[in-house]
Amino acid sequence: MRRIQDLRKQSCLIKTDKAQVHILVDAELERMLDQWEEEIKAKCGITDLVISQDDLPLQHKIEDKIKGKGIVVYLEKVE
Question: For residue range 25-42, what is the model confidence (pLDDT) as tens digits?
Fold first, then answer.
């Protein structure tokens, strides 16, 4: 959630702005994050969240690591 909030800030979104997010991860992280999908959506103001191994780029991007594994978070404001 921190990475999504960081990307929202970098993208100049305000708290009331809604966004769609794609999180690109490996299979293990995908399984781990799937159980948190609804909480992530609620806390981060996300209308559409995709957690997958498929690269689906959106307007803004941040790369990081979780448990030593690379992740990519894409974000785009929903009008």
Answer: 999 999 999 999 999 999
pTM of the model: 0.89
- DSSP bridge pairs for 70: 65
According to DSSP, the residues that pair with 73 across neighbouring strands are 23, 62
Going from the C-alpha of 64 to that of each of 26, 31, 57, the distances in angstroms are: 13, 18, 15
Q: Phi/psi at 21 (nearest 5 deg)?
A: -135, 140
DSSP string across 16-75: T-EEEEEEE--HHHHHHHHTTHHHHHHHHTEEEEEEESS----SEEEEEEETTEEEEEEE
Which residues make beta-bridge pairs with 24?
52, 72
Summarised one tens digit per residue, pLDDT across range 43-61 is 999 999 999 999 999 999 9
